[in-house]
Write a structure and sequence with these properties.
It holds the Pfam family 3-dmu-9_3-mt. This protein is α/β, with parallel strands linked by helices. The chain is 34% helix and 28% strand. The chain contains 5 helices and 8 strands, in the order βαββββαβββααα. A 4-stranded mixed β-sheet has the order 1-4-3-2. Strands 5-8-7-6 form a 4-stranded mixed β-sheet. A hairpin with a 4-residue loop joins strand 6 and strand 7.
Length: 157
């Protein structure tokens, strides 16, 4: 296990989520699946308790902790993309698998975890500052899934 690991709380589907992420994003995998050695408040002995996984090279563990805590946008995975095809593929995988769209490149998977599918061209435009940043920002504010061609056109003015 890595020294610093992101722990993501799930009601009961940590393993399914980890397998979805591993199948969707490169440099992702499912590691150890740890079963509860005894009964606990929201589960019983033998239930999947913890799943070690990586998402785009980021070490994580999924904890099946029950319904006490819900995901919100205060935590998200941000995935940088290089092409519209890659942006579409990740967005459609998340939204098309029971997730939901949000705005400005944000979406949620079916487990409620927030994702930012962010083309690098958008990040570059915002980092450039000045008029191109403002134009790219204004264009982004009208979008759900980010349209790279529209961001590039806005950046140029």
């Amino acid at each position: 296990m890595a020294k610093n690991t992101i722990c993501v709380w799930y009601d009961k589907d940590a393993e399914a989520a980890a397998r979805f992420y591993a199948a969707t994003f490169p440099d992702s995998a499912v590691g150890a699946v740890v079963r509860a050695p005894g009964d606990y408040p929201d589960g019983k002995q033998g239930d999947v308790l913890v799943v070690e996984f990586t998402v785009a090279s980021i070490p994580c563990i999924g904890l099946n902790g029950g319904p006490a805590f819900k995901h919100n946008e205060a935590f998200s995975f941000q995935i940088a993309t290089d092409t519209q095809e890659e942006t579409d593929r990740y967005w459609n995988a998340i939204v098309g698998n029971g997730g939901q769209e949000s705005e400005c490149g944000w979406c949620k998977d079916k487990w409620g975890v927030s994702w930012q599918i962010t083309p690098r061209v958008l990040s570059e435009a915002l980092s450039a500052g000045g008029g191109q940043a403002k134009r790219a920002f204004d264009a982004m504010m009208t979008m759900r899934k980010i349209d790279i061609a529209a961001i590039e056109a806005a950046r140029r003015g």
